[in-house]
Amino acid sequence: MKPNKGFSLIELLIAMLILMFVMIGFLAGLIKYIQFSIDARMKDLMDKAVKDWSGYLESLPYNASCSPVGYSFGSAVCDLSTNQCSFENIDSDGDGIPDFYDPYSGNNNNYSSAPLSTASWLWVGPTIANLTCNNYPHPTTYSLVGNRRVYTALTVATITATGGAEMGRAYGITAWYFSPIDRRYKYESSLLIKRKP
Q: Which one of 88, 141, 167, 169 has the largest count of C-beta atoms within 10 Å of its C-beta?
């Protein structure tokens, strides 16, 4: 009998199985790479949003007529030498994030499926009327990376002296997103204190 040249059916099936596992591993790695890439772009947009809003609020005249009107945190006692304010100690939902920088009332990771259900203490946010200040164009309250959003919200408090006179304003600027990797809440916050002229 003449020996067969070539591969048997079993050898071909084994080779196909090995190739299939290699392809599955490659695709899983590719998906992870895409998720990490989107996460990095979202983080960059988050950083940019905080810087853009800080620059915008810093550039506004102190007495600019803004809408919405009022303060989301009323008056606060602040030590202007250390930039520590009383509102930074309020954490009404117990999630470890001071309300002044917290866009949600509750565990923030629970809002990944309802990201627009923001807290009532926000001055400006993705679902709250856009800020208008004497027709100065402002940055957006959200940015897109594909179909994913990076959100921005603001809180504001007046800084008062012992006698109740207004000394300045404190702005809490928070940008956040839900990671495409694990759907966890990621954020960056900044405090801007603007002294009254």
A: 141
